[in-house]
Amino acid sequence: MVKLIVAISGKRKSGKDFVAKRLAEKLRQVATVHLAGVSHSLKQEYAQIHDLNYDELLTDGPEKEQHRRDMIEWGEQKRKQDAGYFCRKAVSADPNCDICIITDCRRTTDMEFFKNYCKTLAVRIDADLEVRKSRGYIFFYGIDDAESECGLDDYKHDFVLQNNGDDAFLEKQMGEIFDICKTLLSN
Ligand SMILES: Nc1ncnc2c1ncn2[C@@H]1O[C@H](COP(=O)(O)OP(=O)(O)OP(=O)(O)O)[C@@H](O)[C@H]1O
């Protein structure tokens, strides 16, 4: 059974995936680590039901755009029935690992699910708007002002990591998270 979840949230292009991968590398020195995403489990199941190629769902094009809209609606319906549905799928993908890093928490219900599931460290990735823009961020109405993007803006995370491109500072903060995880694993 998973002993610890590191639940990562952050704005688009704040560096959630980047930080999650670096953190996984570090934590693999002391534990088995699985990287998972709530939205990945949603996309995977949607693709399976509709006999679609998972990667194709992520590409552009009118047909894919229609699928994306249907997929979002389908996901909302599933969440209404069971708010933790995709979180459970994400964390169950490798039930024997010590640490599961979730790269894309978006809603308070995601955090509530993980905190109830097992020991969870909620980590917020912060990056300045200009830095995010330099990484390709563009504001989209209906996306960047939606609950899925803003739902955790005011949530009290256990650790807030600044990811503005200063690698030495990033490593220092990673070291602090690494130590917290080690302590949580041994308690
Ligand atoms: N500290 C960093 N140093 C160098 N490059 C970085 C750093 N953080 C993020 N990046 C780069 O910025 C881009 C966006 O990062 P990433 O994909 O991790 O963001 P994200 O928050 O997961 O984005 P999205 O929400 O859109 O999935 C990537 O190309 C990534 O390699």
CATH class (first level) name: Alpha Beta
Low-confidence stretches: none
Mean pLDDT: 94
Query: Beta-strand level of the residues, as a percent range?
Result: 5-15%
Bound molecules: adenosine-5'-triphosphate
Shape: globular
Instruction: Give the domain tally.
Output: 1
* Main structural class: alpha/beta
For the biggest β-sheet, the strand order reads 2-3-1-4-5
Cα(first) to Cα(last) distance is 15 Å
Task: Note the total helix count.
Answer: 8
CATH H-level homologous superfamily name: P-loop containing nucleotide triphosphate hydrolases
Percent of residues in helices: 40-55%
Q: In angstroms, what is the radius of gyration?
A: 17 Å
Major sheet size, sense and barrel closure: 5 strands, parallel
> What is the number of beta strands?
5
Binding site for substrate: 163
EC number: 2.7.4.2
Protein name: Phosphomevalonate kinase
Binding site for ATP: 11-17, 135, 173
How would you describe what is shown here?
The structure is a single chain. 49% of the residues lie in helices and 14% in strands. The protein is of the alpha/beta class. It has a single domain (4-38, 85-186), classed as P-loop containing nucleotide triphosphate hydrolases (Rossmann fold, 3-Layer(aba) Sandwich), CATH 3.40.50. The protein has a five-stranded parallel sheet. The longest helix is centred in the middle third of the chain and has 20 residues, at 62-81. The protein is globular. Adenosine-5'-triphosphate (ATP) is lined by residues 10, 12-18, 135, 163, 165, 170. One of its GO terms (cellular component) is cytosol. This is Phosphomevalonate kinase.
